[in-house]
Design a protein that fits this description.
- The protein has one domain: 3-Layer(aba) Sandwich (Rossmann fold).
- Strand 3, helix 3 and strand 4 form a beta-alpha-beta unit.
- The protein is 36% helix and 17% strand.
- Helix 4 crosses helix 5.
- By secondary structure, the protein is an alpha/beta fold.
- The chain is built from nine helices and eight strands.
- The longest helix is centred in the C-terminal third of the chain and has 16 residues.
- Strands 1-2-4-3-5-6-7-8 form an eight-stranded mixed sheet, sandwiched between helices.
């Protein structure tokens, strides 16, 4: 049913090998951590990695050992995926290593609190707290606020988009760009991808509903800051790079968000992710289609002047 390459099928099989019969929250997190570790490469030589706190929230920074640029580091503020329920700093070392090394920039990853223990708006508010701490010049690295980008995958893409909405609504400066990789943006249940990809590899439609329910908790009517596709106005948001995966129940969330941004006059590049599945970022160096996604992503960041060259 899903026409994926042999390379990608092997990646899916390896990823699924870390699942178990333990469906408890602790078991889910443990299995996810084990899977992530299996796909995490060694830290690149010449990359400095450190953990500290910004705005009362734990973060991890990654940057080359080269001197700080005169105007401060160009910075990618990264929000990890995991359905707001699993993951953390270790789970996304792999992509933060890549971004910091390939682009010669500072990457700051946010260790936001997880649902269901900490449902919305906890993760959203913690991402805002880190943003404000950066704006206030806190933290050990000097940052060029004119070259500050927010980025996230899956649930992290949701948080990145929500952060942009919240800043715009508050009349505050927004990031230079928002980079969203197969984001879950709270689209309606009747989007075609929910049916077309209901049992897609690595993420089913039922999975997306479960994670969203855990994130929303008892919050009542959802907010656009939990589900950005509920927003009524998309004017004044930052330019966007949105990558979706063809075989992903969340595919149409990203496509619909891109359409709405473009209709509001926001410069938006949509990457269609043909042949890809949710969670495929970890297949870097293993799957040709994933390497192409990385090429487009890195070229976008370089081409828009968002990085230190």
């Amino acid at each position: 049913m899903y026409a994926i390459s042999a390379q990608l099928a092997a990646f899916v099989q390896k990823t699924e090998s870390f699942s178990s019969d333990d469906v408890s929250l602790a078991g889910l997190r443990q299995n996810y951590a084990r899977m992530c570790q299996a796909f995490t490469p060694p830290k690149p030589e010449g990359l400095r990695v450190s953990d500290f706190s910004l705005g009362g929230v734990g973060v991890r920074s990654y940057h080359p050992a080269s001197p700080t640029p005169a105007e401060g580091w160009p910075c990618l503020l990264y929000m990890h995926g995991g359905g707001w329920v699993v993951g953390g700093l270790d789970s996304h070392d792999f992509i933060c290593f890549e971004l910091a090394s390939a682009l010669n920039v500072l990457v700051i990853a946010i260790d936001y609190r997880l649902a269901p223990e900490h449902p919305f708006p906890a993760a959203y508010e913690e991402c805002r707290a880190v943003w404000w701490a950066i704006q206030a010049g806190q933290g050990p690295q000097a940052i060029n606020l004119q070259r500050l980008v927010v980025m996230g995958d899956s649930a992290g893409g949701n948080l990145a988009a929500a952060l942009c909405l919240g800043l715009r609504d508050a009349g505050q400066p927004v990031p230079r760009a928002q980079v969203l990789i197969y984001p879950g943006l709270g689209g309606p249940a009747d989007l075609p991808s929910r049916q077309d990809c209901r049992d897609a590899p690595l993420l089913s439609t039922a999975d997306t509903a479960t994670y969203l329910a855990l994130y929303l908790g008892e919050s009542g009517r959802p907010s656009p800051y939990a589900m950005p596709l509920l927003a009524e106005d998309y004017n004044g948001l930052p330019q966007a790079f949105i990558a979706v995966a063809q075989f992903d129940p969340l595919r149409d969330d990203g496509m619909l968000y891109a359409e709405r941004l473009q209709a509001a006059g926001v410069s938006t590049l949509l990457y269609p992710g043909k042949g890809l599945v949710h969670g495929c970022l970890r297949a870097r160096g293993q799957v040709a289609q994933v390497d192409r996604l990385y090429d487009y992503l890195l070229d976008y960041l370089k081409g828009e002047g968002l990085t230190q060259v």
